[in-house]
Amino acid sequence: MPNYTLHYFNGRGRAEIVRMMFAAAGVHYSDKRYEFSDWDSCRNDFPCNFLPCLEMGDGMRIPETMSICRYLAREYDFYPSYSLDMMRCDYICDCFYEIMHDYMRYYHWKNGRFRNYMYWRYMNTFSRIMPFMERILSMRNGSIQFFTGDMMMWCDMMFYCCMEHIYMENPSVFRSYPRMMSLYNRVAGHPKICSYLKNRCQTFW
Ligand SMILES: N[C@@H](CCC(=O)N[C@@H](CS)C(=O)NCC(=O)O)C(=O)O
């Protein structure tokens, strides 16, 4: 198994899904966190000048959150067995990541000139995707389990990580989405995730 180092800022942000997948797989890694004030001096050390970045034991540095997650999902069995279900798992992740992407842009720029546009864009994405996801859940297993069946897959963890900050800021966010509300609690109650959430490094975002 590679000697992994995850590079990210000192927050949950886009890296939290990677940390959560490591925790669920029981895989050890180094969690290297940067302050924004240090970023200018090291951004050129990373591919695409972005974080998160996963460094493999041989020093190879891999960018892009979704590529990192798909790799971990393949390596540590967080994909369902059948190709069609894998595709479903992937699109669920892409949908939630879209919400998170727009939300993060709004959150980090909310004091800037484009605040209204960022908010509109985030809300637009949110209301386009959430009802669809609620329907997907209602079609599977009477919505008593996870997105693709009775095992927690990476789409369930992605859902949790993408919604976590949004839910903390606005506890009524799931008001029209009761199935997702219970899925959120189900993911948090999964033994590996529950222990991760209790012991993780606490940060504001
Ligand atoms: N497409 C990339 C985007 C990564 C990204 O936007 N990272 C932000 C932090 S959340 C970053 O590194 N910002 C540094 C900068 O803009 O200089 C991914 O999905 O991983």
Outline the structure in words.
Helix 1 crosses helix 6 (154-169) and helix 4 runs antiparallel to helix 5. The model has no long low-confidence stretch (mean pLDDT 95). Strand 3 (53-55) and strand 4 (61-63) form a beta hairpin. The chain folds into 2 domains: 4-77 and 194-199, Glutaredoxin (3-Layer(aba) Sandwich), CATH 3.40.30; 83-190, Glutathione S-transferase Yfyf (Class Pi), Chain A, domain 2, CATH 1.20.1050. It has a 4-stranded mixed beta sheet with strand order 2-1-3-4. Helices cover 57% and strands 9% of the residues. With 205 residues, it is α+β, with helices and mostly antiparallel strands. The site of glutathione has 8 residues, from loops.
Domains counted in the coordinates: how many? 2
Low-confidence stretches: none
Please name the CATH architecture of the largest domain: Up-down Bundle
What is the fold named in CATH at topology level of the largest domain? Glutathione S-transferase Yfyf (Class Pi), Chain A, domain 2
Radius of gyration: 17 Å
Which structural class is indicated by helix and strand composition?
A: alpha+beta
Give the overall form: globular
Care to count the β-strands?
4
> What's the CATH class of the largest domain, please?
Mainly Alpha
Q: Which range best describes the helical content: under 10%, 10-25%, 25-40%, 40-55%, 55-70% or over 70%?
A: 55-70%
